[in-house]
Each structure stands twice: as structure tokens, then as C-alpha cells.
Design goal:
alpha/beta; 5-stranded mixed beta sheet; 7 helices; 12 strands; 38% helix; metal ion binding; nucleotide-binding; transferase
């Protein structure tokens, strides 16, 4: 079995693959302790390898790799910055500064599309990246995602107070809000949609209609209806991780 880890700033996304590359366990956790609890629940877990992409500090990343070695006796392969992988050229002036999660999503999308593509990752932060038909990464954009926008309003505006259940109910439609929760949640949703529409317009300026759109991240479902042709791929980063860290 192979353990794959995507270590973000706030959460760890993980999954376990069997010999046929089928997913036999996985989830999203907030700590290494929760990760170990989740792994303990995977039936017949016997790890032969592990690979990881991490945007955390070197110390945090090494500590997790050491923990996995102590618990499961596996050495964890770590994705590293690169100028070129599988025909994709890193577009940053300093290639080491491009977030590894973005880089792996770009590599995976280009491998799957084989042509120009727009990669949208809608999570705590929202990122977009443009990859030309020849594999050249043209750059991208980063902005706050819905969770960050919501939390900033809750934190800095004293009268905005509501729970997650109310937030979910508020998104049943996008008519003008008649309560604070509706106004905030629908406003954030519309800002996200506006960002996505702008990325599509830019992609069309580059490539007309000859490109593919990839959607990943926790809020990908909130924009699916305005991107009917997009490929929604929750595990896009893991696909890139396998390309960057092949196992024998």
C-alpha cells in the first residue's frame, strides 16, 4: 500500500492506495494525531511507501516524515521545486517560490489535457494558473477564498455573527440577501464566481476555445454550474505528486 499526503497550511489531505492503485482509505485532518487515527482505521494497512507534498516549514515536514518512519518503517518521498517536469516549464522568475501544491496541480493538468489548460484551485485561498499548449506555465493569480473572506468579515465586523448551518442555508439561492448571513454568504459566493469568470475571459484571450479547465479544491462544487465543461478533480494534486515522485 502507498500513503499519499498533501500537507497544506491548515489541513492534511491523505489517501492510501492498494496494489491496484485503488483508494482504500483517506480523508482530511487537522493534525498529525488525527492522521494516525485515520490510518489506524484502514483495514489491513501495510505501507510499502509514502510520498508527500507539503507547503509547511521544513521542520514541520521533516517531523511528519520522521513520525511515519517510526510508526510504519517507510521513507517518505517529498516533492521538490523544479524548473521542468514532464514537459511543463515552471513560469515563476524564481521557480522555487511557486507553491508546490500549485506546481503539482499544473503538472497533473497538463499531463491529462495534453494542451493548453486553466487550473483553478478553490480552497482557503483561490489560485488560478495558465499553462500553454507547449507546457509553458504563464503564471497565475492568488486571492482569498470564501473561508478567508467569511472569516475576515466575522472577525473585523462586530455585528456579523452566525453559525455554519446558517451559512449553508443562505446559499440555497443567490438573490439579494435579506439578512446579514444571506448578504455575506451570497456576496462571497458571487465574488468567487466573478474571479472564475475573469480567469475564463483571460484564457480565451490567450487560446480562444482551445483549452481545458480543471477544478479542484473544497469549493469547486460552488462554481460547477458556470463551468459545465470543466473537469472537476478533487485529487488533482495527488496525480501530480505521483508524477513528481514515482515509485519503483
Amino acid at each position: 500500500m502507498i500513503l499519499e499526503l498533501d500537507c497544506g497550511n491548515s489541513f492534511i489531505k491523505w489517501r492510501v492506495l492498494d496494489r491496484q492503485s485503488a483508494v482504500v482509505g483517506g480523508g482530511v485532518v487537522g493534525s498529525t494525531e488525527e492522521l494516525l487515527v485515520g490510518l489506524d482505521k484502514v483495514s489491513g494497512l501495510t505501507l510499502r511507501a509514502a510520498r508527500m507534498v507539503s507547503v509547511r516549514s521544513d521542520d514541520e515536514t521533516s517531523a511528519l516524515a520522521n513520525l511515519l518512519f517510526e510508526r510504519f518503517a517507510v521513507t517518505t518521498l517529498r516533492a521538490r521545486p523544479a524548473e521542468v517536469i514532464e514537459g511543463v516549464t515552471n513560469g515563476y522568475d524564481d521557480y522555487q517560490r511557486l507553491g508546490l501544491d500549485r506546481w503539482l496541480a499544473i503538472v497533473a493538468a497538463y499531463r491529462l489535457a495534453g494542451k493548453a489548460c486553466l487550473v483553478l484551485d478553490l480552497g482557503t485561498a483561490v489560485t488560478s494558473d495558465f499553462v500553454a499548449a507547449d507546457g509553458a506555465h504563464l503564471g497565475g493569480f492568488i486571492c482569498p477564498g470564501v473561508p478567508l473572506m467569511r472569516n475576515q468579515l466575522r472577525t473585523h465586523t462586530r455585528r456579523i455573527r452566525y453559525d455554519d448551518d446558517a451559512a449553508e442555508r443562505a446559499l440555497h439561492d443567490l438573490t439579494p440577501g435579506r439578512s446579514t448571513v444571506e448578504a455575506v454568504e451570497r456576496g462571497c459566493s458571487l465574488m468567487l464566481r466573478g474571479f472564475v469568470q475573469t480567469q475564463l475571459e483571460l484564457a480565451r484571450e490567450y487560446w480562444g476555445e482551445s483549452f481545458e479547465v480543471f477544478l479542484t479544491g473544497g469549493d469547486a462544487g460552488s462554481v460547477e454550474e458556470i463551468l459545465p465543461a470543466a473537469r472537476v478533480m478533487p485529487d488533482l494534486i495527488f496525480i501530480g505528486l505521483a508524477i513528481a515522485c514515482p515509485l519503483p
